[in-house]
Write a structure and sequence with these properties.
Blueprint lengths: L3 E6 L7 H17 L1 E6 L1 H8 L6 H15 L7 E4 L5 H12 L2 H5 L2 H12 L9 H4 L1 H10 L5 E4 L4 H17 L9 E4 L27 H8 L23 H8 L2 E2 L2 E2 H10 L5 H28 L1 H30 L3
Parallel strand pairs: 1-2, 2-3, 4-5
Antiparallel strand pairs: 6-7
Helix pairs in contact: 3-13, 4-8, 4-14, 8-9, 10-13, 11-13
Bound molecules: tryptophan and iron/sulfur cluster.
The site of tryptophan (TRP) has 14 residues, from β1, α8 and β4.
């Protein structure tokens, strides 16, 4: 039997290259080897955005469309929407009964989120019961499929540790070895920075979206920060101080006809043989080459929204069928009616 993988993402709308390179491309590789469940965590979105739900549905569709475009294959992996698998909510209740409050209170991510929320004005500044339960809900996601491995970013590892603690406690209390202790599987850390050199993020307006056209992508790449000390295009450049453009080259450059493109860029830049504008024009073309197939698939799914909806519905049904098996076992173990 294949090992099981479960991971999720909040429905934040159209995704960017940071999501693609850091997370989704990783998932695409995993789907061949593992039995994968990928969830759009719409309940998790509600923990902080319960009062901004107008775009929740479209954001969910956009996320799934980007996953499909990047190569998540619904014939290999199970793509589903969290709230379409209500068994997870039921499991969340059982788990919340056995999770000590101080285990939640020491969660570092939650502490950070609380700090951010507190700094904001208005309604969202309070910490609701649902937000406190966020790590237990994530545990419920993982245990809904009794997953072996959980691909996550470094910021989520503490949550998987909590999941392991809750598993031990559940197994202990109900005298079973039913739940396996899942292992975190760290995502690629070759995180791409934003066009301005900061972390790539939607709210920082420094991202390149998976859904951006070739033209928009090329235009955005022209705004990438380069070696700031360089005045004229024949000045010798310093690739290692080229804050964004050269870093992108290292991600997207390859070997072409035996020539290492990154080394060529480095050499020509250092000798003053390469202007930054030309360099970024080439870089834009390079990124577009890599994105061409993804864009094509995305255009196809965008033209067939009924197909995306079908994939979401069928994936969620499949996930639910698995979840029901786990929950009937859990009900039995907890000795519910
Ligand atoms: N909490 C994760 C995040 O904010 C998303 C998530 C929800 C998740 N459920 C999950 C990740 C289950 C891994 C497993 O990024
Ligand atoms: Fe960066 Fe290219 Fe300009 Fe060199 S030529 S500083 S690598 S953008």
């Amino acid at each position: 039997m294949k090992q099981k993988i479960m991971s999720g993402m909040r429905p934040t709308g159209k995704l960017h290259l940071g999501h693609y390179l850091g997370v989704i491309d990783n998932w695409v590789k995993l789907q061949d080897e593992y039995d994968c469940y990928f969830s759009v965590a719409d309940w998790h979105a509600l923990t902080t955005k319960y009062d901004k739900t107008e775009s929740l549905k479209q954001d969910t569709i956009d996320v799934v469309t980007d996953w499909l475009a990047c190569g998540i294959d619904p014939d290999k992996a199970t793509i589903y929407v969290q709230s379409l698998v209500p068994e997870t909510a039921e499991l969340h209740i059982y788990l919340s009964m056995i999770t000590p409050q101080n285990w939640i209170e020491r969660d570092p991510t939650l502490k950070d989120m609380a700090k951010i929320l507190k700094s904001k004005e208005g309604m969202a500044s309070q910490i609701n019961y649902g937000l406190m339960g966020y790590p237990v809900l994530m545990t419920a996601d993982i245990l809904t499929f009794n997953a072996d491995l959980v691909p996550v970013g470094i910021d989520q590892v503490a949550h998987v540790e909590l999941t392991r603690d809750i598993v031990r406690r559940f197994n202990n209390i109900y005298n079973t070895d039913f739940f396996v202790e899942p292992q975190p599987k760290l995502n690629n850390c070759s995180l791409i920075c934003g066009l301005d050199g900061n972390k790539m993020g939607k709210s920082f307006h420094n991202d390149i979206k998976i859904s951006d056209s070739a033209e928009v992508t090329a235009k955005k790449v022209m705004t990438a920060i380069t070696d700031r000390s360089r005045m004229r295009k024949d000045d010798p450049g310093h690739p290692d101080e080229c804050e964004v453009a050269f870093k992108y080259w290292k991600i997207f450059g390859g070997v072409n006809n035996g020539v290492n493109e990154v080394e060529t860029v480095r050499c020509e830049c250092e000798k003053g043989l390469r202007g930054c504008a030309d360099c970024k024009r080439q870089l834009g073309a390079k990124i577009n080459e890599r994105m061409a197939e993804i864009r094509e698939r995305r255009a196809y799914y965008e033209e067939h929204p009924e197909l995306v909806e079908k994939i979401i519905k069928e994936g969620s049904q499949k996930a639910r069928a698995e979840a029901q098996k786990v929950l009937s076992k859990v009900r039995e173990l907890v000795k519910m009616y």
